[in-house]
Write a structure and sequence with these properties.
With about 375 residues, the protein is mainly α. It has 15 helices and no strands.
Length: about 375
């Protein structure tokens, strides 16, 4: 007696070409004649590029040798990084005192890692950051505990990049939220001021703001009064980033349903309570992706300070390449620099995805 058709189908396995690796290849790369042609062309292009690059970057390369050893090789001279790592990271910070910016960077990274855990989002976190900022400033500037004073014109390299990026993002975010709220305000004066500020800042490139802070702004100061150049660049980055964050947050506020405001009114909440407890938590959550995009742009834009003679990590790398011994190895140096920026940006992007997933409530 034969099995019924339903029982027979229960034991049938799918074709080998429909599952596993073969199924994925057929469904994604060879599902039509033009996709198959494109796949073959891409594979041929990769075959022409990847093996030569691998030989250049790994097989025929040197990693930690003097500059003279790089002259007779056909591969990459990665030695330009380890042989100049001290200057690339710390720049003109005095020798023998470079442990201070190194410790300040470790403290900064430690605070960032500690702040990633939502369990630590308490009032005490602000105190930790305040104390950390004071300790970092003390380490960088000195003047106490036997540490010699190091003026800000000697702050350079990776510490300067981290400082401009972190402080710029941390200070720009709340300012951007306030600007977004002000732009939606019912008070004409406040709304007009916020609109003028946001549109004016967004209408000019960051380079122009940096030039104004470095060249034009000192002309308006009274004689004998000066403001530190690093501080001026930091303020320009904060003001520029805040204008873009304001527009991102405004989009989140406009996406909130009218019923949320009416529900808050029915509970007797005033404007501050409505925004703090009902509207802003939801609006800021839904704009996490574009907000992080602006943060990534702000981090990468710190490299523009080279035009006002601030020696961030990009500038110290350029100075290293101006040494006749290392001239001609810019490819290796800029690849290493690109990897550094990618790691930092990928870490921020990855954290934003986890945070968005953690805050997702299913609506």
């Amino acid at each position: 007696m034969t099995n019924p058709p339903s029982a027979t189908r229960e034991y049938l396995k799918p074709p080998i070409t429909e599952v596993g690796v073969l199924g994925w290849l057929r469904g994604n790369l060879f599902n039509s004649w033009y996709n198959s042609l494109l796949t073959v062309l891409v594979l041929l292009a990769l075959w022409q590029v990847v093996p030569p690059f691998f030989n250049w970057a790994f097989i025929n390369s040197v990693w930690n040798s003097p500059a003279e050893a790089c002259r007779d090789i056909d591969g990459a001279c990665w030695s330009v990084i380890p042989q100049n790592i001290s200057f690339i990271i710390f720049g003109f910070f005095p020798d023998g005192q470079q442990w201070r910016p190194g410790l300040a960077m470790l403290l900064m990274i430690g605070l960032v890692i500690y702040s990633k855990d939502r369990k630590h989002w308490k009032k005490s976190l602000g105190t930790y950051w305040l104390v950390g900022l004071v300790v970092m400033a003390t380490l960088m500037y000195g003047g106490v505990f036997g540490m010699p004073v190091v003026e800000t014109d000697q702050w350079s390299g990776l510490p300067l990049t981290f400082m401009l990026a972190l402080f710029g993002m941390v200070a720009a975010y709340p300012l951007g939220v306030l600007l977004a709220l002000g732009r939606r305000s019912r008070m004409p004066a406040i709304k007009t001021l916020c609109v003028v500020y946001i549109e004016m800042i967004r209408g000019v490139p960051l380079i122009s703001l940096l030039f104004m802070s470095s060249v034009m702004f000192p002309l308006f100061l009274p004689e004998g009064v000066t403001i530190d150049k690093v501080l001026r660049a930091q303020v320009a980055i904060i003001l520029f980033t805040a204008a873009y964050i304001a527009e991102v947050v405004r989009g989140g506020l406009q996406a909130m349903a009218r019923g949320q405001f009416e529900a808050a009114d029915s509970l007797g909440l005033n404007y501050n309570q409505t925004m703090r407890l009902v509207i802003l938590p939801q609006a800021l959550k839904i704009v996490i992706p574009p907000t992080v995009g602006q943060m990534l742009s702000a981090f990468k834009d710190t490299s523009l300070v080279v035009i006002i003679a601030l020696y961030d990590v990009l500038k110290t790398t350029k100075v290293t390449l101006s040494n006749p011994k290392w001239t001609g190895y810019s490819t290796e140096a800029y690849i290493a620099l690109a990897i550094f920026y990618f790691i930092c940006c990928f870490a921020m992007s990855n954290y934003s995805r986890k945070l968005e997933k953690a805050l997702h409530t299913g609506h």
